[in-house]
Specification:
By secondary structure, this protein is of the alpha/beta class. Helix content is 33%, strand content 20%. Strand 4, helix 2 and strand 5 form a beta-alpha-beta unit.
Amino acid sequence: SSGINAEYGEKEVIMRKQYIFGNWKMNNNLPETIEFFKLAEESLANADLNQIVMGIAVPSINIFPALDLSNIIQIAAQNIHQEDSGAFTGEISVGMIKQAGLKYCVVGHSERRHMFGETDSVVNKKNP
């Protein structure tokens, strides 16, 4: 987006952050996760990422190891359940991912819609 600086008649450019996230799906075990984050963080250490947020949605089992190893790359959950708690084996809630320190989550992925029948109505309930 841009604006006009009225005092000088100059056009001011306001940069919006770009978000680039990958999704590991059901891939990468613990040793592979550790190796990836060590190499990725090292290679990004001197990158100019002021206007870029980079992240990866990792399998739930790898969230804490990824958080421990990541300073530059944001960690995202791959899915959340629409309820805060209850008898939903294998599911995690928004509150759980927030308590873990996550800010991002993949919601409404085409695989969830196709394989698990998630509709727009269900996806909208996952948005707190």
